[in-house]
Write a structure and sequence with these properties.
Chain lengths: ~325, ~240, ~290
């Protein structure tokens, strides 16, 4: 499916006339403003919006991996768990403020992802999917085993997130702005990264490994790096997830979480950064609204959505938007 | 009425048109050869008949149009296509390959009678029935493919480049069996061949294809005497 | 020593369950090159159908047979409706579709039957018999016997029937199969139907001991994946051997390597899976296709 949508959309505009550049800069500015204003506009949903931003970070990681190297991971929940537990354990045992543990969570998850990425190199397509799936199922049981550190299946109860110092902000707003700023930074970073040399290398790998090798791309290293980067994003997302709940146990990161992130990435279209927030909003708000029908409705809808999108819209929301907008953009 | 008739048949692979309106006929009991250079459309013509390529135009088998049919439908009508590369089920045993040939047939007793009759021509098959077909030599695989096609008791046999990659002796043996079956049992054959010499010794009629069109046609005798055919395809 | 034999037998029993499910995965993978992530959920769904039938007063074996039929039809229907449209799509698209199916079926089960744990009857007595000083549970023996019967029937079907032959042929050479008159796309559906039946057997065998709930197969399917990969994802014999080996290995680890504890059985299976994949990317029973990069 990565191949179905070869066009690079938000990553590298196909041509950049001055008008187009001005327009896209304007659009990005408007979006950023909107994102910053959201908690004021949707006061009561601030917490859920922060959650969506966390998902967006995790989805971003998955898109980097799937969309740009063609590798699949069904186990990003595992890396979220690693990040989340890094924060949780640090906060619980040393009393460090949650926000300070985020970078370390990213680094730890990233390193583990990087080293997982090397064996993963040898696994193609379906096997990698299998291995990561197994990883996601296995991590909660590993966490339960090391009870002294992780609190076992009972988990760890942590301090509730508080704004630093005498800052008078409501906690959920502080959470929202914290999460969103991290997300924005990571998005910008990824965008810059994918625009340059590394991005070209990754796309070359996705479109044909053998050809990429013959152009002198160190496939092994780039794939492992992509895996590490992707896992680092997941770690950051997991860390934020733990910080905002003030609690962590193995069930914070069930296999459903991995699948949910995957659904978000698929809804967003896998190859474009621009549509990721849509995917994140989808997976955050769908359960909230559909649970009124039945407790199990979200799962059924997720599943049906995944199937329908793969069958009808293999390029996801991004593809749909692009198709709808292409008459407009084409004329500019 | 001819057993097989093609009228203005076109076929394409994606954007590339491989056949530009082919018309030919195969009479019951005949061996007809399709000659031509690489890329002339010989293989595509066979594929058009069996339905393994998208085609338009008119194809009639026993007077009925089959141009909308599927490959499995063609097999059920009695068209046995031995494709390029022989279509061996490499991972199945020799015997299972033969059983696959009989897939379209219902009468079990008739099948085993036919098997007995066919194996007279291929005595070695019986001894190696349990062997994986992929481990046979090229010539053996080609013989097995012929045997497999014959078990289906076809009304029409399509052979694609049977001589490809085989030793001259094996090629002669192969065509010897084809001719014997044609003469003794009236088997109708449409064969694609690069090796025009041997094809014209077996065939009753032949068509020469050039870039997706029929350039020359006639009896095997006429083609052998045709100056340009001789120079381009027979090499003397 | 006697305990050792008991552990082996009960390992073989659970290994038989993994083997059935692994074989289901292999059947589908051989013909469609797809790993069906929803295989476990489909098996659980079938088990729920059996539970409903028995709950409504049907006796065990009729319910068992009827469930197999329903599972078969269900498997065929899933292939026709969900997999067919993506038949020609890249592998990952199909993988995503089966994951969608996993989530969908899992949610549907919780919706239809509630997520509560249900007890499922066993057709075998819960006694143990004494074989030369070794007490062997009839439960384990029954499950193992059931697995062997299923596998034997399946083997006979593939080996000696025309449809079985066509299924094998369609898996190795679809183009030639069509030329021989086989309706290949229906063979794929048939393969899904058979796989669903196998899954149903494994579900009904495991349910008495693991209890029935929507996530019943989530861990078992990982074992089945591991077994299938262990044996080579295209090798039916490998899947069965892999399943039995894994069952015995996990049981022995559980019994004799207590420091690992029950929580680490799954990670151990995962580690085995990864190790095998790294050393022999195509499994123990398959020749590797060389890929140079």
């Amino acid at each position: 499916m990565a191949r179905a949508a070869r066009s690079t959309g938000g990553v590298a505009p196909p041509s950049s006339t001055p008008l187009r550049r001005a327009l896209s800069a304007g659009a990005v500015a408007c979006l950023v403003l909107l994102v910053l204003a959201l908690p004021v506009l949707l006061e009561t949903r601030t917490y859920e919006l922060a959650r969506a931003a966390e998902y967006a970070i995790a989805i971003l990681g998955l898109v980097v991996l799937v969309g740009f190297t063609g590798q699949i991971s069904l186990g990003h929940g595992a890396f979220m768990a690693i990040g989340g537990y890094t924060s949780g354990v640090l906060m619980f045992h040393t009393g460090v403020a949650g926000a300070l543990t985020i970078p370390l969570a990213g680094v730890v998850a990233g390193l583990i992802g990087f080293f997982f990425g090397f064996p993963a190199l040898r696994l193609s397509g379906v096997y990698l999917a299998l291995a990561t799936f197994a990883l996601a199922v296995a991590v909660p049981s590993i966490l339960k085993r090391f009870e002294g550190l992780t609190g076992g299946s009972g988990g760890l109860v942590l301090d509730v997130l508080a704004p630093p110092g005498r800052l008078h902000v409501r906690p959920e707003r502080w959470l929202y702005y914290l999460t969103v700023s991290i997300a924005l930074v990571l998005f910008a970073l990824t965008w810059l990264l994918l625009r340059g040399r590394a991005g070209r290398a990754l796309r070359a790998i996705r479109d044909g490994e053998v050809a990429a090798v013959s152009f002198g791309v160190n496939v092994a290293l780039y794939k492992a790096l992509a895996f590490g980067l992707s896992a680092a994003y997941a770690g950051v997302a997991g860390s934020l997830l733990v910080i905002d709940s003030g609690f962590v146990n193995p069930d914070t990161f069930p296999i459903e979480l991995s699948i949910r992130i995957l659904v978000g990435a698929v809804v967003a279209g896998l190859t474009t950064l621009g549509a990721i927030p849509l995917g994140a909003l989808f997976i955050e708000f769908l359960p909230i609204y559909s649970q009124q029908v039945s407790q199990q409705a979200p799962a059924v809808i997720y599943g049906a959505a995944l199937i329908l999108i793969m069958v009808l819209l293999p390029s996801g929301a991004a593809g749909l938007i692009r198709r709808l907008l292409s008459p407009v953009i084409g004329r500019l | 009425m001819a057993l097989l008739e093609l009228e203005g048949v076109e076929a394409r692979y994606g954007q590339v048109r491989a056949l530009h309106g082919i018309s030919l006929a195969v009479e019951e009991g005949q061996v007809v050869a399709l000659l031509g250079a690489n890329g002339a459309g010989k293989t595509t013509t066979l594929r058009a008949v069996s339905g393994t390529v998208r085609r338009t135009g008119e194809i009639r088998f026993e007077g009925r149009s089959i141009v909308r049919g599927s490959p499995e439908g063609a097999a059920r009508l009695g068209i046995a296509h031995v494709p390029e590369g022989r279509g061996t089920f490499a991972e199945l045993s020799v015997w299972d390959n033969l059983r696959m040939g009989a897939f379209v047939r219902r009468n079990r007793r008739a099948v085993s009678a036919d098997l007995e009759r066919i194996l007279v021509h291929f005595p070695w098959i019986e001894e190696r029935r349990g062997q994986q077909a992929g481990t046979l030599s090229g010539g053996e695989q080609q013989m097995l493919a012929l045997a497999r096609a014959l078990v289906a008791r076809p009304r029409l046999l399509l052979l694609d480049e049977p001589s490809l990659g085989l030793a001259p002796l094996v090629v002669r043996e192969f065509f010897g069996i084809v001719r014997m079956l044609n003469q003794e049992e009236g088997l109708t054959v449409l064969v694609v061949e690069q090796n025009a010499n041997i094809a014209l010794t077996v065939a009753d009629r032949a068509y020469v294809l050039e870039v997706g069109e029929i350039a020359v046609s006639g009896s095997a005798e006429e083609l052998r005497r045709n100056e340009s055919v001789r120079r381009s395809y027979l090499g003397y | 020593m006697t305990e050792f034999f008991q552990q082996i037998v009960s390992g073989l029993a659970s290994g038989g369950v993994y083997a059935s499910l692994a074989l289901a995965l292999v059947l589908i993978h051989r013909s469609t090159q797809v790993i069906n992530f929803a295989q476990g959920e489909m098996a659980t769904f079938a088990t729920y159908i059996a539970w409903t039938l028995i709950d409504r007063g049907m006796s065990y074996w009729p319910a068992f047979v009827l469930t197999l039929l329903v599972a078969f039809v269900g498997g065929v229907a899933v292939e026709r409706v969900v997999i067919r449209p993506v038949e020609r799509a890249p592998v990952l698209t199909v993988v995503m579709v089966t994951i969608g199916l996993l989530v969908l079926v899992n949610g549907a089960m919780a919706w239809l039957w509630s997520p509560e744990v249900k007890s499922f009857p066993s057709p075998f007595p819960s006694r143990a018999i004494d074989v030369g000083g070794v007490a062997i549970s009839l439960q384990d023996l029954g499950i193992l016997g059931m697995t062997l019967v299923t596998l034997t029937l399946l083997y006979l079907f593939f080996r000696f029937t025309k449809v079985g032959l066509a299924l094998r042929a369609a898996a190795v050479n679809p183009e030639s199969s069509r030329l021989a008159g086989v309706r290949v796309s229906w063979m794929l559906a048939l393969g899904w139907g058979l796989a669903a039946m196998l899954g149903a057997v494994s579900g009904m065998m495991i349910a008495p001991t693991s209890f029935l709930e929507p996530n019943m197969m989530q861990v078992i399917i990982i074992y089945a994946f591991a077994a299938a990969v262990l044996g080579g994802i295209n090798s039916p014999v490998g899947a069965v051997v892999g399943g039995l080996l894994l069952g015995v290995a996990l049981n022995l680890i559980g019994a004799y390597a207590e420091f690992l504890g029950p929580e680490l059985r799954l990670p151990v299976a995962l580690a085995i899976l990864l190790a095998v994949l790294l050393v022999r990317p195509a499994g123990l029973f398959e020749r590797a296709v060389v890929k140079r990069v």
